[in-house]
TrEMBL record:
Pfam families from the UniProt entry: Beta-lactamase
PANTHER family referenced in this protein's UniProt entry, alphabetically: BETA-LACTAMASE-RELATED, BETA-LACTAMASE-RELATED DOMAIN-CONTAINING PROTEIN
InterPro entries: Beta-lactam-related, Beta-lactam/transpept-like, Diverse_Enzym_Activities
Lineage, highest ranks first: Bacteria, Bacillati, Bacillota, Bacilli, Bacillales
Keyword Transferase: no
Ranges for domain Beta-lactamase-related: 13-330
Protein keywords: Hydrolase
Keyword RNA-binding: no
Protein's recorded name: Beta-lactamase family protein
Parts forming coiled coils: none
Natural source organism: Paenibacillus profundus
Length: 353
């Protein structure tokens, strides 16, 4: 049994995580693909499988970034474009300087994700009347920082990016992603709405997860699901990551141009502070829609690896130097189990020969 399996089994046995699955690919070929632990934290439905479906949470943002960059490639948007030229609610002295670039790099200064500042009782931004008038709700109050001043992780910013995509493309955000990314890549087990016939193959940890599988009554009244709405599998996520590693192409399908991928996956933030869940960083590295590994004494990933985690329970890493794609799911009732992510990265990258 390999070191990685022992690591995951230890976390499962001590109750830190419910289960684990991982896929590691190098040079375009899958080298390891395995799972262990329970599929369901609410009922006995057997074991997690290598092709089980799992909610991606914030990894959805990588699809949103690719979708937006397709519109940039088509000449319909530009990265320094003020958001207020598309969404009228931002046409005011507080928000008029926010650009698409600021939203993609989490430097807009608008509402951060709940709990970002380790506040003990984060409030949902939607308040009364649900999601009605959601754009004005996420813009209420002052900016946390001036645009471009600091990294301020904002799912609300990616909701605005989804709104921009659907206004500029003329189709719902979800339809644009399906037609331009999911279908061309043949991501057959990637969904915004998992078919009911496949609900039994979805990994869930609690009743909240179960409830999320139920379709909403009227998506037209809700924000686009551009921050955390996708479900997928390890294999589908590998194909997505491999497409980026290939410079925007998968087999005969080209999703993005090579120069677009280079722009999207290189470091853009230098010297920007970030508080982020208690960690007071003075220099937060970030690409466009991706975190990026920089030259740091505690980073095991190769410098230039672009990556994103989803709610501390899922992760995608693309390492151009090692020609490697790593995807893993570590479902847990805890929002963040450090060893399930940090320890996993250490084992994988330290084992490279």
């Amino acid at each position: 049994m390999g070191k990685l399996d022992v690591h995951f089994l230890s976390l499962i046995e001590n109750g830190s995580i419910q289960s684990a699955s991982y896929l590691i690919a190098r040079n375009g070929k899958v080298a390891a693909w395995k799972s262990m632990g329970k599929l369901d934290g609410t009922a006995d439905r057997g074991d997690l499988q290598p092709d089980s479906i799992r909610k991606l949470a914030s990894i959805t943002k990588t699809f949103t970034t690719v979708a937006l960059m397709k519109l940039v490639e088509d000449g319909k948007l530009y990265l320094d474009q003020p958001v207020c030229t598309i969404i009228e609610e931002l046409n005011n002295p507080t928000h008029q300087d926010i650009t698409l670039y600021h939203l993609l790099t989490h430097t807009s200064g608008i509402l951060p994700v709940g709990g970002y500042f380790n506040e003990p009782y984060p409030n949902p931004w939607w308040g009364t009347n649900g999601m009605e008038d959601w754009i004005r709700k996420v813009l209420q109050g002052p900016l946390y920082y001036r645009p471009g001043e600091a990294y301020n992780y904002s799912s609300a910013g990616f909701l605005l990016l989804g709104e921009i995509i659907q206004r500029v493309s003329g189709v719902p955000f979800e339809s644009f992603v399906i037609e331009n990314i999911i279908e061309p890549l043949q991501l057959d087990r990637t969904f915004f709405d998992v078919p009911e016939s496949l609900h039994g193959q979805v990994c869930v940890v609690d009743q909240w997860d179960v409830n999320l599988l139920k379709p909403q009554e009227d998506y037209a009244k809700l924000p686009p699901r551009s921050d955390s709405g996708l479900y997928s599998t390890l294999h589908d996520m590998w194909k997505f990551g491999q497409m980026l590693l290939n410079g925007g192409a998968w087999n005969s399908e080209r999703i993005l141009g090579r120069r677009t991928v280079e722009l999207m996956t290189r470091r853009h933030l230098f010297g920007k502070p970030a508080y982020q869940w208690g960690g007071k960083l003075q220099d937060k590295p970030h690409a466009l829609g991706f975190d990026i590994a920089a030259d740091h004494m505690t980073s095991f990933e190769t410098q230039g690896t672009f990556q994103l985690e989803g709610a501390g329970r899922s992760a995608l890493f693309v390492d151009p130097t090692e020609q490697m794609v790593v995807v893993f799911f570590v479902p847990s009732v805890s929002s963040w189990v450090p060893l399930s992510v940090l320890g996993t990265k250490q084992i994988i990258w330290s084992s490279l020969m």
